[in-house]
Amino acid sequence: MLDGKTIFSKYLKRFLIAAIAIYLAFRLRQTLQLLLTSLFLAGAISPIIEKITSIRINVHNWRIGLNRVWAVVLLYLVLLIVVVLAIAPAPQIILELGQFFIKLPNLLEQIQLPKGGLFNLSQEQLNRILQTQPLIDQAQNFGKEIVSQTFGFTLQIFNAIGVGILSLLITAYMVINSSSLMRRCLSPFSKRVRHEIEFLIPPITRCLGAYVVGRIGTSTLLGFCTYLTLSLFGIPYSGALGLLVAISNLVPYIGGLVALGAMFIAAWGVDFNRGAIALFICFSLQQIEAFILQPWLVAPYLNLDPFELLLSIIVGAELFGVVGAIIAPPIAGTGRILFNHFASPATTDAEE
């Protein structure tokens, strides 16, 4: 009877602790979200900080390098420059994107096929396809909403910057004091658990860092290069299309096609040679990003096959919208690392 009471008391304590944890997580969800975001960023930039601190320069037989504090400061200065360059034209680009969707019907009317049609498709059939009224109405309503809320979007951007600065400060503290924080967080656990966690942290941080630099970074670079190319060849809405490319490229396979379709529509009314060259260059940039940069920077560390990557983005978008679509792949990659680590011993035991 005593054993039964002891067991009941033990499980009751666990239930109460779990209930209190769930309640606090619900009440402090914004703080918890901020901490989780900072933890995600800390894991993402840790490999970069490690590489910066490992660089040594020989000066008069002295090996000089940066410690973790100055490495974080240097990285943040670079990020600050990038953010300022990205945020400054944001209101104008958002307004331009809204105008693109509003004028989409007029742009579609400019698309004319050669005499006799193309691929057994006549001009009348093409017009019926392009002028599908529900899609046109949705596009125009979306554009009007963007234009009417440009000021609101700008305020949201500055609000996000404020939250981002606070998150970056917490991230900097986590990265600089990672060793002491790790010891304090792992001290309640057994030696075996500490060893497991210490073993898993490097591949997880490499996964997060590779995605942030390799996926988000290359998508931003691709959007900027697209903007420069379209501007150089005089394609209208170049800023909006560059933003569209940067965002849509985060969705594999489908995103690139959507962006190319939008660029094709915008470039049709321009001189044929200029429009064709601009589209070819933008398409080539997408292929370089997809088949050279992504396999080199992301694929070795994300541990996801193409179907798993697409599925994770769909699930993330369904649960948390655009933010969920962006953060879902590294979370899924981390889950795959954990599964492979903890499932492999069981598989080995089963085979034996």
TrEMBL record:
<feature type="transmembrane region" description="Helical">
    <location>
        <begin position="309"/>
        <end position="328"/>
    </location>
</feature>
<dbReference type="Pfam" id="PF01594">
    <property type="entry name" value="AI-2E_transport"/>
</dbReference>
<feature type="transmembrane region" description="Helical">
    <location>
        <begin position="7"/>
        <end position="26"/>
    </location>
</feature>
<feature type="transmembrane region" description="Helical">
    <location>
        <begin position="221"/>
        <end position="244"/>
    </location>
</feature>
<keyword id="KW-0472">Membrane</keyword>
<protein>
    <submittedName>
        <fullName>AI-2E family transporter</fullName>
    </submittedName>
</protein>
<keyword id="KW-1133">Transmembrane helix</keyword>
<feature type="transmembrane region" description="Helical">
    <location>
        <begin position="250"/>
        <end position="270"/>
    </location>
</feature>
<feature type="transmembrane region" description="Helical">
    <location>
        <begin position="277"/>
        <end position="297"/>
    </location>
</feature>
<dbReference type="InterPro" id="IPR002549">
    <property type="entry name" value="AI-2E-like"/>
</dbReference>
<keyword id="KW-1003">Cell membrane</keyword>
<keyword id="KW-0813">Transport</keyword>
<feature type="transmembrane region" description="Helical">
    <location>
        <begin position="69"/>
        <end position="88"/>
    </location>
</feature>
<comment type="similarity">
    <text>Belongs to the autoinducer-2 exporter (AI-2E) (TC 2.A.86) family.</text>
</comment>
<feature type="transmembrane region" description="Helical">
    <location>
        <begin position="32"/>
        <end position="49"/>
    </location>
</feature>
<feature type="transmembrane region" description="Helical">
    <location>
        <begin position="157"/>
        <end position="176"/>
    </location>
</feature>
<keyword id="KW-0812">Transmembrane</keyword>
